[in-house]
Amino acid sequence: MLLLFTSCSHQSKVFGEAVTERDSLPVLATYDVNTLISDSGLIRYRIEADEWLVYDRKNPSYWAFEKGVYLEKFDEDFVVDADIKADTAYYYDKDRLWELRGDVAIKNLKGERFNTELLFWDEKTQKVYSDKFIRIEQEDKIVTGEGFESNQQMTDYTIFKPGGVFYINEEMQADSTAVDSLTTDTLE
Asked: Residue 50 belongs to what H/E stretch?
């Protein structure tokens, strides 16, 4: 009987390999995030994310929202005046640069809807830009293009290689001057 117990106690346990590279682990992992961000005592933003990981030892260091992120911007009366949604987002804290990937959807202060698959927001230069396909839905037209650059409020922007769908009022006379004027003014 003693031999039987002795043989069972000498079984070796199997362990996984130790993590030796500290930079492969997040310093902070937060789940089901719903937080408010204030500025000068006023709530300005609300962030929702299923997962928020902070990698402080990576080069460069960054925050990861790999399961998506949703952000709302509030005005002084706590009314939502802009929102951003992305399938994946990274924030490079040292560079103050946001990288939004996947299905990126933004509504600006004017109610325009922006859709793209890749978007960068540089907080230092206060610019938003992309070199990918962009679709902007305005009140009276849909503008598309390959790449764009904008201010961070997304109200003053330039579209590279523009195109789109433009609605023409049926009451307009169908002469070539009116159509050329509409096209030129709209795309500039």
From this structure: strand 42-55
